[in-house]
Amino acid sequence: MTDAIGYERIGDIAVLAAQNPPVNALGYDVRVGLVQGIERAEADAGVRAVLIYGEGATYFAGADIREFGKPPREPFLPDVCNRIESSPLIVVSAMHGTALGGGLEIALSSHYRVAVPKARMGLPEVNLGLIPGATGTQRLPRLTGVEAAIDLVTSGRQIGAKEALDLGVIDKIAEGDPREIGLAYVRELLDSGAPRRAVSELPAPAPIDFDAAYEATLKKGRGQLSPAYGVRAVQAACERPFAEGVAEERRLFTELMGTKQRQGMIHAFFAERAVGKLPELDGVTPREVKSVGVIGGGTMGAGIATAALGAGLSVVLLEMSAEAAEAARKRIEGNLSGALKRGSLGQDAFDAMMTRALTLATDYEALSDVDLVIEAVFEQMDVKKQVFTRLDAVCKPGAVLATNTSYLDIDEIAAVTKRPQDVIGLHFFSPAHIMKLLEVVVADKTAPEVVATGFALGKRLGKISVRAGVCDGFIGNRILKTYRTAAEHMVLDGASPFQIDKALTDFGFAMGPYAVSDLAGLDIGWMTRKRLAPTRHPRERVPTYADKLCEAGHYGQKTGRGYYIYEAGRRAGIPNPEVMELIEAERAELGLASRDFSDDEIVRRYMAAMVNEGAKVLEEGIARRPLDIDMVFLSGYGFPRYHGGPMKWADMQGLDKVLEDIRTFAREDDYFWQPAPLLERLVEEGRTFDDMNREAAS
Q1: Is 255 assigned a catalytic role?
Q2: Furthest-apart CA pair in the chain: how many Å?
Q3: Could you please report the per-residue DSSP string of 496-561?
Q4: In what order do the strands lie in the sheet with 120-122?
Q5: Cβ count within 10 A of residue 205
Q6: Which residue in 107, 249, 359, 587 has its CB near the most CB atoms, within 10 A?
Q7: Residue 511 burial by CB count (10 A; 0-12/13-18/19+): exposed, middle or buried?
């Protein structure tokens, strides 16, 4: 047997122990060891049952990611699962830690399953653009029924032991060491004369309207194929004999393996793990952060404070008045109440956060002992400078001074302090306690340990932290400004904001750009346009109709009217007819003739602008790697994960085709559509953005 699976005999029980740290991934040696272990147990005279468990922190936590992209080697996991289940011996799995993907499929192939109370399990393959491919979609419905199986297969969510027991995924929960509870359960089964119970031999569940379930799943996934394919695989479990269902699962799995969506999802998976690994931080120790100051208790500041409290930090929140501080407290309380209602936060923890961990203040002196302070005040340079001048005077030596600015020059902000090395940008996205993205913006004089502190804080807060350089808008908002400009040009030339929103949600975005503007507040873009007006190039095409909405007090969702009208009790808005009236008046004033835009052209222009500006951001060093841009948009801007991010999308389209589009669009506007030199070089050299990622990692 391989060293990855240990074999031990205890009376009439053979014990197979996974020994493949750190997570007992189902690599080649583990698969071989499981098959050999079952065969040895069957040949071992007097053995009546087999116990499978994992040594260390977990049961089998899933596939071995080191094998991704490599040719598969026999024995394949479906064959391992079927070999386990076909054993004439009683096979029991004792589960702890996590049993995910192939790990859960191994457990489902056992005849009985016992788990510790804190064990978690699930089938997360949809998050890689796939479906379970080792009989999971065929065995699970026979235990849980169709609806629960579809939920688990299409959502990829993890469930705890109690829910797993209620659904029939496991048979028993027991406290203790997995080896000991496993042995006790096997002994109980043998003593009671329990029969061998193969899941594949259980009756198939009653079918449902699978066509309706398929369409609903496709719509919910905004075009992602893998969850919908999961519905079809479960359908096969209901309508076909087990062996034929397994063959259909394998066919669907193989078909998904060849899709661009799977490429995009795999890229996102690895990019998320690589984005926080920066060579510049190797060996750099972050500063200790136990207490955080937050200046400003509006939506953003309250969200940042909520995230910090949830991470176990003490928070001093500074506001201008006692009334404003109390309003901030209520916002934080409201944010935490959601977690309390969901059960993810206990009442005692909630009370401790609100009464002991949170301090409200109206005097800067209250920040004199915090380890790190984040300002979240009005987006205006003179206001930011005033704040940092005060912080420089009151904060202790070594405290990190962070700005949450979305656009402003952090070097200019740092220059008003006597400690520019301690100043950094920590750009959160609203709502800050929910949104995953954190741009860690590194100014010219920011010390390496301060950068490391920003990343350490982001990790503690559960954020996906991305390094960014200083420019107007950093990575995300700078690129957003460009593709939003491309959308505005299309509106002036004949498209409607509502057609653009629909085309882009059909592409897979969570929201279109105009619905996003309503959510963020139209006053933000209005303020930015006014700020940039003095330096605007005369050839820039900047529409004014949105300014007229703002002048009328229509800022989007917070005022009930923007591009859309938001009626009480309805989450989604309906198109505001006033918008098209303003657009048509502006077209007439400018003497523009309208033309039709297909949805395909809308997407191509929007994406070409995004990719082209992304290439410029890379060339300037604002982003270090293409994957950094991808993670910004996947985690902060609602970019469809199955496209992998804008730079990965461009690779999959072909950079030559994207460049050809840009050059075509430049014939009508060579000021806006200027091909990025980096993009031109990559095409000329036959290289991709993925090549740049690999070079950065080497």
Answers
A1: no
A2: 93
A3: -HHHHHHHHHHHT-SS-HHHHHHHH-HHHHHHHHHHHGGG--TT-----HHHHHHHTT--BGGGTB
A4: 98-100, 120-122, 158-160
A5: 19
A6: 107
A7: middle
Cα distance between residue 634 and residue 268, in whole Å:
8
d(CA 633, CA 650): 14
Indicate whether 365 pLDDT > 80. Answer: yes
User: What is the fold of 476-697?
Assistant: N-(1-d-carboxylethyl)-l-norvaline Dehydrogenase; domain 2 (1.10.1040)
**pLDDT on residue 13:** 98
User: According to the model, what pLDDT value does residue 1 have?
Assistant: 62
Question: Is 601 a residue of the active site?
Answer: no
- Is residue 178 reached through a cis peptide bond, with omega within 30 degrees of 0 on the bond before it? no
d(C-alpha 674, C-alpha 680), whole Å: 11
Rounded Cα gap, residues 58 and 21, in angstroms? 9
- Among the listed residues 42, 55, 74, 105, the single catalytic one is 105
Residues of the chain with CATH 3.40.50.720: 285-468
CA distance 352 to 371: 20
User: pLDDT tens digits for 107-156?
Assistant: 999 999 999 999 999 999 999 999 999 999 999 999 999 999 999 999 99
Q: Does domain 5-258 have CATH number 3.90.226.10?
A: yes
Two tokens, residue 300: 């953003």
**Other C-beta atoms within 10 Å of 329: how many?**
18
Residue 252 has pLDDT above 90, yes or no: yes
> Which of 329, 334, 338, 303 lies closest to 463, judged by CA?
303
- Among 67, 74, 125, 680, the active-site one is 125
Q: Give per-residue pLDDT as tens, 51-109.
A: 999 999 999 998 887 787 788 899 999 999 999 999 999 999 999 999 999 999 999 99
Which residue has tokens 């056992």?
110
Q: What tokens does 438 get?
A: 């954190």
For 164, 495, 565, the CA distances from 558, given in Å and listed in that order, are 41, 26, 11
**Structural tokens at position 355:** 């009464």
> Any idea which of 212-221, 415-424, 503-512, 528-537 has the lowest mean pLDDT?
528-537
Measured over the CA atoms of residue 74, residue 76, residue 80 and residue 86, the dihedral's sign is negative
Burial of 357 (0-12, 13-18, 19+ CB in 10 A): middle
Determine the 3-state secondary structure of 241 from DSSP: coil
What value does the mean pLDDT take over residues 15-25? 95
Burial (0-12, 13-18, 19+ Cβ within 10 Å), 564: buried
End-to-end CA distance of the chain: 36
Distances (CA, A) of 43 to 32, 182, 191, 450: 17, 22, 22, 61
In the chain, ranges of CATH 1.10.1040.50 domains: 476-697
The dotted CATH code for 285-468 is: 3.40.50.720
Q: How far is CA 220 from CA 32, 155, 515, 541, 620, in A?
A: 39, 10, 18, 36, 38
SS3 202: coil
Cα–Cα distance measured from residue 682 to residue 692, given in angstroms and rounded to the nearest whole number: 10
Tell me, letter by letter, the H, E, C secondary structure of 2-68: CCCEEEEEECCEEEEEECCCCCCCCCHHHHHHHHHHHHHHHHCCCCCEEEEEECCCCCCCCCCHHHC
Distances (CA, A) of 399 to 290, 356, 439: 11, 22, 19
CA angle, 627 then 659 then 485, to 5°: 75
The boundaries of every CATH 3.90.226.10 domain in the chain are: 5-258
